[in-house]
Structure to design on (285 residues):
């Protein structure tokens, strides 16, 4: 069976591998396709695609947008036009909002003598910066043992250096992915601690705005959990997707293509999604 991974983060957001390195790693893992799904940016795609052509790996353009609907909900978008003029201002807003929040977090730390400089962070990490990057610095400074410890004691909600940020609404997130020619997918549905009714409510609500798929296979999900999600997708006539949510060192228990062990994403998921994307692009909007 051809192995694929449709949920992967690069250094363009909070992953530790560059887009090129991800493609090379995919090659060593014998994957035939990966989707780059960075938080709030598509800036890693071009390099990954280029490298994919060189190495014979199919690279799918993607994104993961963080939203709130009650609690946090993530929406994946596949086959978006990465140069979409509609998408740009929306992502710029998100990045600008992150920037303002992050700068204040850095200032708060600096005021307590923690040597954190936000301009330097921007130089080092690029435009999409979040709490995982602060965690990495705290670990490097020897102020935390690992990412988890840094969150628990410094940047988790309720801790001294946590500051909230704003989110794109779930409705707008789904819509903007559609407007950019993409396929909106509900990410990792078991991460939200919802019961069957709660999950259905979100799916049905998102479908009103154009949701087209559910992430059914994910790191750590049991075959029973995936089976349940796949049945839900079929019931609602939605596409099925799957991926590991590989981040490299910041989520060390997750491996590309294999998740926490035994992750299998059928190539057929990708084929169906690709066909749907192509059909949509050929239709008048
Ligand atoms: P931000 O968008 O800057 O608020 O950061 C949110 C990101 O931090 C999420 O995408 C998670 O990947 C990560 N995160 C949130 N809570 C934790 C935690 N307790 N431990 C490790 N990573 C976390
Ligand atoms: Fe992340
Ligand atoms: Fe996510
Ligand atoms: Zn993710």
């Amino acid at each position: 069976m051809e192995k694929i991974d449709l949920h992967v983060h690069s250094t363009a957001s909070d992953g530790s591998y560059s887009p090129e390195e991800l493609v090379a790693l995919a090659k060593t893992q014998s994957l035939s396709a990966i989707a780059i799904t960075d938080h709030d940016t598509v800036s890693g795609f071009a390099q990954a695609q280029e490298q994919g052509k060189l190495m014979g790996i199919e690279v799918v353009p993607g994104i993961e947008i963080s939203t709130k609907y009650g609690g946090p909900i993530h929406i994946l978008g596949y086959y978006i036009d990465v140069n979409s003029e509609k998408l740009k201002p929306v992502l710029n807003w998100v990045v600008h909002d992150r920037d303002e929040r992050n700068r204040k977090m850095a200032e708060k730390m600096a005021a307590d003598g923690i040597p954190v400089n936000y301009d330097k962070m921007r130089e080092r990490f690029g435009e999409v910066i979040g709490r995982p990057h602060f965690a990495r610095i705290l670990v490097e400074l020897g102020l935390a043992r690992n990412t988890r410890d840094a969150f628990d004691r410094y940047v988790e909600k309720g801790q001294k250096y946590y500051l909230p940020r704003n989110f794109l609404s779930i409705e707008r997130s789904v819509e903007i992915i559609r407007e950019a020619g993409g396929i909106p997918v509900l990410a990792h549905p078991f991460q939200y601690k919802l019961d069957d009714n709660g999950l259905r409510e979100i799916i049905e609500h998102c479908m009103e705005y154009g949701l087209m798929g559910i992430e059914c296979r994910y790191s750590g999900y049991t075959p029973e959990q995936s089976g349940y999600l796949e049945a839900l997708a079929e019931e609602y006539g939605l596409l099925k997707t799957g991926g590991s949510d590989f981040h490299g060192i910041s989520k060390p228990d997750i491996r590309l293509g294999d998740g926490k062990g035994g992750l299998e994403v059928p190539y057929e998921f990708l084929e169906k999604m690709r066909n749907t994307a192509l059909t949509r692009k050929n239709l008048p909007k």
Q: What stands out?
A: The longest strand covers residues 58-69. Residues 153 and 159 are 6 Å apart (CA to CA). The mean pLDDT is 96.
